[in-house]
Amino acid sequence: MKPNTTETDLATATERHLLNTVGVAPDQAGAPEVLQAVSQAVREQLSQRWVRTQANDRATKARRVYYLSMEFLIGRTFGNALASLGLQGDAAAAAEKHAKTLEDLAAGEPDAALGNGGLGRLAACFLDSMATLGLPSFGYGIRYEYGMFAQSIQGGRQVEHPDSWLENGTPWEFPRAGIGYPVCFGGWVEQPALPGGKAQWRPAAEVNAKAYDMVIPGHGTDKVSTLRLWKAVAPAHIDLHAFNSGDYARAAEVKNQFENISWVLYPNDSTPAGRELRLRQEYFFTSASIQDILARHLEEHPTLDNLHEKVAIHLNDTHPAIGVAELMRLLVDQHGMAWEAAWKITQQTFSYTNHTLMPEALETWAVDLMHHVLPRHLDIIFRINHEFLAFAASKKPDDVEFLRRLSLVSEGGEKRVRMANLSIVGSHMINGVSQLHSDLLVQTIFSDFAYLWPERFTNMTNGVTPRRWLAQANPKLSSLLDQTLGQGWRLNLDELAKLKTAGDNSSFRIAFAEAKQHNKSRLAALIHKTIGLQVDPTSLFDVQVKRIHEYKRQLLNLLHVITRYQEILDNPNGDWQPRTVIFAGKAASSYHMAKQIIRLIHDVAAVINNDRRVGDRLKLAFIPNYGVSVAEVIMPGAELSEQISTAGTEASGTGNMKLALNGALTIGTLDGANIEIGQAVGDDNIFIFGLRTPEVEAQRRAGYQPMRIYEENARLKSVLDAIASGAFSPDEPDRYRGVVDALLWGGDHYFLLADYDSYVSTQLQVDRRFRDRDAWARSAIANVAGMGPFSADRTIGQYAEQIWHVQPRR
Ligand SMILES: *Cc1c(COP(=O)(O)O)cnc(C)c1O
Fold it and tell me: Does 6 participate in catalysis according to the annotation?
């Protein structure tokens, strides 16, 4: 019999770390010190699993998947690590010795916010699933010194603050002193003397990429995975001269020129930043990662000829697309492989996920800039393009426009390299992230590529990890699920389907509603703590949380809020369903319109929340600093999930999945994964409104006239007139002229006015349904029950089987 000694083990280890690692007398330890000590004790256990997992992968020469992503929006690790090791109880006991709860401790950990939004959070959910499924895998990214900016609100406006998440170090990373690679930039290329020979790149500068590993624990397995992040370090020799001459300021400046590559995350998630430093960041982490991959391969295999049999490299969007040229460079220039052989291997090795349909959001780089920063890679891209266009011409002779659209280089005006085209040509599989998005990819922006290679395009609908987004974020609902279904849903989310019958059981519905009420109170407390607003925890909690972007249409939501406000004033004795409308989200620092929308939300909130005629019937709350940890409180407390993007603009969404998983009903357009969510939960348990994608397209083509709608819709006119005339900004009546003008005169690019009526009337249906609390609970339960397919485990299982051909080992 194995004695259960883990509690004493963890408690003992904690005391040992307090004394030896943290350096504090155990009776003097506050929450930060206890957190550090428990984390160190947990780290030890993870480290041992890590060594075992790696040794096993090495011994079996496993085929591995490498997930390259510019962003990983991880959030906190403490709670997740404890859950993965099954150590929550032991840790709680260890904390209790110091009169602390686990919540006290966890709150002290800063979020690792190395990403902007959905794309980065997806990468983090995927790491969790890859570890849990036991896929031999690595994530690769950048160890940003400063992650996503922290948002505060001052005078209704977003203010950005640096996110110095590493200030006090982190127990979850392991610096790998021995692992580093040179990454070169600039200079010129010595062309081969003979055609087909090796080119010599003579770079102008070199920086070292140093590896820092973050441990990614798997759940229900002793497998762990690795997120390897690169930090830029100036080469030791570079500043010696200035240092020797005593000019320390100059030495520091030179050092900074190199090290700024990994300083800060670009606070933007859809448009290319267009800055040279961003290109350097992309190449920096991609080059270091691929050098590392080749080095690992050569430790296990005598040759690179079988690279594609042992290595799958995945491009999370086009940010690492330069990897296609980099692998070619390494194989041909450094390892002497023939171009044709290298190209076959490269294409078989890469796969690519697209994340946007909006052409203006596709990444391109000016040829001139690329020539300046990566001259050898530009040559390689030109050659790839030359051979690709020759192939394409053979399929559609004499169609010049076809070739123009396919080219890796856009002509007409400034020449630019199209990173999506490079990714497609360099990959054997390309996927979208929801069924609609994948269908539209091959019908619209990538139709020419799909004509050439229909078999390369596929769909991988996104998912989220149930460990963080249900087990960790929603302990109340989780324990109800455990009582009802057992604990297996954590690793097999399809087991939630068994709830379909539990919804008929009134005592289950009551317990379910109680859990929701508890979580609403927790959310109400967060609102009160952050902005000082009291909200009624029995009102309908209507939630839109995501990056602030015109296509996501927070402004449409606000038009409904103002409509409701005006109608309450017009009809003060009406039987209004009380609502609390909750927003959270960051705007890119350079995105003026998104920042105006944040300010307008605050101005409208100031009017409505202080209007005594409205009372508790309508409240508007903007929770600052949206991020993973804030989301973990919001998702469980939400009742209505706003997923209202213009049809055809949201690739998938994952916030929609997290909210439904926590029992919120969706009000949404037929966009992204909303469509699949609707199919999974049933038409009666989702509120769909608005134009569909083909209808939006048809109206665009026919010449959409928002002004017409404005003139014909008195309710809408009254709302827009109120905004435009300064009803919410009396101190500056013109403040929102620009916002309204963009709708009326600027063409209303995202069709807010077209969808307004349908949206507002659907909100009335929401009210009606909510009044029948029992019917609402049944629908909420049906939402949870239908969420099995939206586990990231399902998504990663499909990638592993259909794209990566890597074996899960659970
Ligand atoms: C899930 C998530 C997102 C993505 O939300 P969408 O609604 O899909 O855009 C963005 N940020 C954070 C912090 C998240 O957790």
Answer: no
DSSP 99: T
Q: What angle do CA 441, 445, 451 make, to 5 degrees?
A: 75
Cα radius of gyration rounded to whole Å, the chain: 27
Domain edge (last residue) among 403, 433, 460: 460
Yes or no: say if 362 and 418 are a contact pair by the CB < 8 Å rule. yes
pLDDT of 501 > 50? The answer is: yes
Mode of pairing for the β-strands spanning 64-68 and 137-142:
parallel
260 domain residue, yes or no: no
3-state secondary structure of 268: coil
- Is 558 in the same domain as 446? no
Helices (H), 533-591: 554-570
User: What's the whole-number mean pLDDT along residues 401-416?
Assistant: 95
Is the beta carbon of 543 within 6 A of some atom in ligand 1? Answer: no
In angstroms, what is the span from residue 428 Cα to ligand 1's centroid? 29
Is the domain of 520 the same as that of 651? yes
**The pLDDT value given to residue 522:** 98
Beta strand pairing call for 350-353 and 429-432: parallel
From 76, 98, 278, 355, the catalytic residue: 355
Give 810's pLDDT tier (boundaries 50, 70, 90): low
Q: Domain containing 399: what range?
A: 322-460
Are residue 482 and residue 432 in the same domain, yes or no? no
Q: Is residue 492 part of a domain?
A: yes
Identify which of 551, 767, 781, 795 has the alpha carbon closest to the alpha carbon of residue 681. 781
Q: Ligand 1, atom 3: nearest CA belongs to which residue?
A: 118
Collapsing DSSP to helix, strand or coil, 11 comes out as: helix
Pair 428, 477 in one domain: no
Are 476 and 413 in a shared domain? no
Indicate whether 191 belongs to any domain: no
- Banded pLDDT at 4 (limits 50, 70, 90): very low
Query: Per the structure, how many domains does the chain have?
Result: 2
With a pLDDT cut of 70, the percent of the chain lying above it is 97
Q: Assess whether the C-beta atom of 658 lies below 6 angstroms from ligand 1.
A: yes
Whose C-alpha lies nearest to ligand 1, atom 6?
A: 655
Length of the chain: 810
Phi/psi of residue 88, nearest 5 degrees: -60, -45
Mutate to test the pocket of ligand 1, among 163, 356, 461, 546 (most ligand atoms within 8 A of CB): 546
> Tens digits of per-residue pLDDT, 617-674?
999 999 999 999 999 999 999 999 999 999 999 999 999 999 999 999 999 999 999 9
The whole-number pLDDT of residue 2 equals 38
178 in a structural domain: no
For ligand 1, say whether the CB of 628 is within 6 Å of any of its atoms.
Answer: yes
What is the helix (H) or strand (E) element at residue 622, kind and residue range? strand 618-622
